[in-house]
Amino acid sequence: xxxxxIEDLLARMTWAEKLGQLQITYHPDPxxxxxxxxxxxxxxxxxxxxxxxxAMQRHAVENTRLGxxxxxxxxxxxxxxxxxxxxxxxxxxxxxxxxxQVASVSGREAASGGVNWTFSPMxxxxxxxxxxxIVEGFGEDVLLNSCFGAAMVRGYQGDDLSAADAIAATAKHxxxxxxxxxxxxxxxxxxxxxxxxxxxxxxxxxxxEAGAASVMASFNTIDGLPVHANRRLLTGVLREEWGFDGVxxxxxxxxxxxxxxxxxxxxxxxxxxxxxxxxNVEMGGNVVADGVxxxxxxxxxxxxxxxxxxxVLALKTALGLFExxxxxxxxxxVAATPEHRDIxxxxxxxxxxxxxxxxxxxxxxxxxxxxVTGPYAESTDHLGAWVQAFATPAGRIVDALxxxxxxxxxxxxxxxxxxxxxxAALRAAAASQAAEIGFAIVFAGEPxxxxxxxxxRSDLRLPGEQEAxxxxxxxxxxxxxxxxxxxxxxxxxDWFDRAPAVLQAWHLGTEAPAAIVSALMGETAPSGxxxxxxxxxSGQVPTHYSHDNTGRPATTGGSMAPTxxxxxxxxxxxxxxxxxxxxxxxxxxxxxxxxxxxxxxRFEYSGARLREGDVALNAxxxxxxxxxxxxxxxxxxxxxxxxxxxxxxxxxxxxxxxxRVLRRFTRVHLEAGESRAVSFELGFDDLAFWSESHSVPGFxxxxxxxxVFIGGxxxxxxxxxxxxxxxxxxxxxxxxxHRYARSTQASTTGVAS
Length: 753
Ligand code: BGC
Known about the structure:
Layout: H1 3-12, H2 15-20, E1 23-25, H3 30-38, E2 43-45, H4 50-63, E3 71-74, H5 87-92, H6 96-112, E4 117-118, H7 142-157, E5 170-174, H8 193-209, E6 214-217, E7 221-222, E8 225-226, H9 231-241, E9 247-249, H10 258-261, H11 267-277, E10 282-283, E11 288-289, E12 292-293, H12 302-318, H13 338-351, E13 353-357, E14 369-373, H14 397-404, E15 409-413, H15 424-437, E16 440-445, H16 466-476, E17 480-485, H17 493-496, E18 501-504, H18 512-521, H19 567-570, E19 603-611, H20 614-618, E20 626-634, E21 640-650, E22 661-670, E23 675-682, H21 684-687, E24 689-691, E25 698-701, E26 704-711, E27 718-724, E28 728-730, H22 736-746
Parallel strand pairs: 1-2, 1-10, 2-3, 3-4, 5-6, 6-9, 14-15, 14-16, 16-17, 17-18
Antiparallel strand pairs: 7-8, 11-12, 13-18, 19-20, 20-23, 21-22, 21-26, 24-25, 25-28, 26-27
Helix pairs in contact: 1-12, 3-4, 6-7, 6-13, 7-8, 13-18, 14-18, 15-16
Bound molecules: beta-D-glucopyranose.
Beta-D-glucopyranose (BGC) is lined by residues 75, 119, 172, 251-252, 453.
């Protein structure tokens, strides 16, 4: 449908019909949904299957005056029928192609049932694991959220939104939602413009540039204004600065929440504020309530309404809904297919993070008997947060183990439940069996429903009495492995030193049991890296690798010491100095840093080489680039994957800089003994930061020294120091995802030995 036809339609629409296009609501009663559609409602939530959804589309197309088809929305987050690893787990793979594939397969499954609009990806940078929604996004880093978000948009939308298997993506939650005070969901997330521009906005810009069809407003306030009513962000940044021309949608009841926020007196006020700020679609169904518009033409600018309706109709047009409003019900995918399961299982090892593996306890050696204990041994709760009731369930780990190890006696002793109390007898029984059998695996973790939306926790340790179970097994002195499933980084300090091997398996979805067992057996190798730091204690959060320099950094020296630390001036270290930025009762830094993860082989980095030139460094603004190369060697005796990470640090700038910022990452597969040169190409955008230093705010590369760190975690050692001579300023940057794409193409070329 051409723009002219949208204009024709618009010219024929009544006020109520226009407003009806500007809301989406859910009602469990289909009769009620039909009535709402009769009253002009333009978008609905998915009706549960293709047939029921087709029936609603038919009602809209055949029984309403203008026959406008419906947007059909659903939260397809990490799978529709086949459930894949959670977004946080996907981020641990440091392989955006996995996210693209998840989105593409989930989109195909969802589209087959009539869904045409998903509320995904979530790209809220999440630095506080108390916030349960950390599981729905890609962790604490800006680049990871940008690359994974853009990859998911590509996966959902493909090249052509009107294709039968494509659905519209929604980048959410715009913006700042990942920094709620106290880690409490829905809480205030006030922040400086500096932080907003350098941390929280870039992933949204990347995803908008990747073509996301819609953007969802977030519940939180910024500058004392809830985003649903924040014109500066919803219109100023999103549309005027970035040129976003898709649909902005409110979060569930987000517009009505303006009333308890205390900035709107009633529903009409709230809607006026939201639409005037730039919201196009209200989620909740309050724009036209019971067939009656809440607002009159006198109360809301017809220009604003027409602009919003145009965007909604343009999305329906792009999806091809006017030509093809129905799906073929017989072709609906109603359960995970073997092919889709296979995809889920094959990507899983890249998402699992081997946190420690003393004495190479893993992969498991052949044993006659194994004790398995802990709540996840017999649970089927592996899907993770944000899956729907119709998702294809996972099985039990104990069954997968028995299937894979027919010759081994796999003994189960419950040991603990997820959240239970008074379980001393259970763990005593598990411990005595562990002692008798001589080897144990503890399957511990958080059940899916204590991460995700409205699932903030103040205590990040294993819930229930699971820590006591781990101690009881450790007390026996037998070797044992802990496998953790969780929707967030947990605080594991209390028992981590006592467990010889710990595997972080997140929630891996429908194929979790088979994937976990294969990794334990060594048929595959866990090779993920932490997408969020593991804090030492709940009181230490937020703790994340890319924190700002402080004036009183506590440091023990080593690779994490700031290089601006002058021992002559400040002393050799200040870890013993009371007046350093630290906790009196905690060691420094996280327990496990961002980017950390082992695998079944070992890698060595050597010979960092810098390819630069003063000319290039002084002409970055004009597109010049410089290169860094390092040799990576697999020094173990089996093939494996390493995620090579490159971080930069701006040593002296006119605004305080993060101690490190991830700029590049690439997953490299090496055979045992193989070496390879891994090269990265960096440019202006990799050294720039946003500030208001110029009359027009923008991005600066300031003269002076920069450090580059390359290695296998955010604690990578210094690889090079470079010096920029000339100040360079730009109003905008190259999209972060483009930069990433260029870098990965350039990497892993050439075999060094
Ligand atoms: C969540 C959104 C979600 C929406 C619709 C809200 O409560 O915050 O992320 O898309 O519900 O289900």
